[in-house]
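**Discrete fold encoding**
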Amino acid sequence: MKIGELAAASSTPVETIRYYEREQLLPAPARTEGNFRTYEAAHLERLLFIRHCRSLDMSLDEIRQLLRIKDDPARDGGDADALIDAHIGHVTSRIAELRTLEKALRQLRRQCNGLHDDGHCGILDGLAAAAQEGVADERPRNHLR
């Protein structure tokens, strides 16, 4: 199949397919005499595998490692277990970070509750104050006051 057909069959943009080839996640396809790429069923299977891994928010390096394991059936599956365990750890950390972010946004939202008086907005005031605190935290401290 041609690249457009592979793109349609996998719901993947052509540029993404080319990118995966450059990153050596997909093997280089054969070429016709007219220099068109020709893909086999194995390319589609591998591309779908990559896309599914990406949907699980795996990095290209993680996917590359999984593909190495997949390409070497004699290899110990414990490597895949370790990789997934590490990825679960990253996801767990990100969830904690997102919960902290949600808490901060909810706290910011409570500063306003839709009440705007005298041109003041609790959200904008809170953001401005936090920004100034951030700048103050980054300034060198003068301990000789």
